[in-house]
Write a structure and sequence with these properties.
Elements lengths: L10 E8 L5 E8 L5 E7 L6 E3 L5 E3 L2 H11 L7 H18 L3 E3 H15 L1 H11 L5 H12 L7
Parallel strand pairs: 4-6
Antiparallel strand pairs: 1-2, 2-3, 4-5
Helix pairs in contact: 1-2, 1-4, 2-3, 3-4, 4-5
Length: 155
């Protein structure tokens, strides 16, 4: 690690500590050349896959866009921030566990619909009605009937 004061590369670690969450390591370092001390912070670098849009273009995965999409569907619905955060975390974990470098936007949309179906049926119908781009009222009615089935009421 290069010293930020003199630029020397000969530094030693004097102390290492883990933060409370366990996801960041703080290292206290000392420069062998100038003797000054400084801290570094180390965290895991996680690379989310690129999102392949319907037109074939590729964009970086955007967590904020995912959260905004969920909240748009959940507008004026009695859902907690914690429930949305948990849904986003589950989607991100699935994306990371796949280990793929690219993922079609349609797959992310399907994941969002699954999460919304668990959280709030009205939000699920809202999102699906836009996402699936229904051609007629019958397709929309089929979706509402699917959500209204007694077997789904417990979720």
């Amino acid at each position: 690690m290069k010293c930020p004061f003199c630029g020397a590369f000969d530094t030693t670690v004097a102390d290492t500590r883990l933060n409370e969450e366990g996801d960041v390591i703080r290292r206290r370092r000392r420069c062998s050349s100038c003797g000054k001390r400084f801290s570094t912070h180390e965290r895991a670098e996680i690379r989310m896959p690129q999102v392949v849009k319907k037109n074939g273009s590729r964009v970086d995965f955007d967590r904020d866009k995912l959260v905004a999409s969920l909240w748009l569907a959940l507008r004026k619905r009695p859902v907690t921030v914690e429930a949305v955060d948990a849904a986003v975390l589950r989607i991100e974990e699935i994306l990371l566990s796949r280990g793929e470098r690219e993922i079609p936007s349609e797959k992310i949309g399907e994941m969002v619909m699954r999460e919304l179906k668990k959280i709030d049926k009205v939000a699920y119908v809202r999102f699906a009605s836009v996402y699936r781009n229904f051609e007629d009222v019958d397709e929309f009615s089929d979706l509402v009937r699917e959500v209204s089935r007694p077997a789904d009421r417990g979720q």
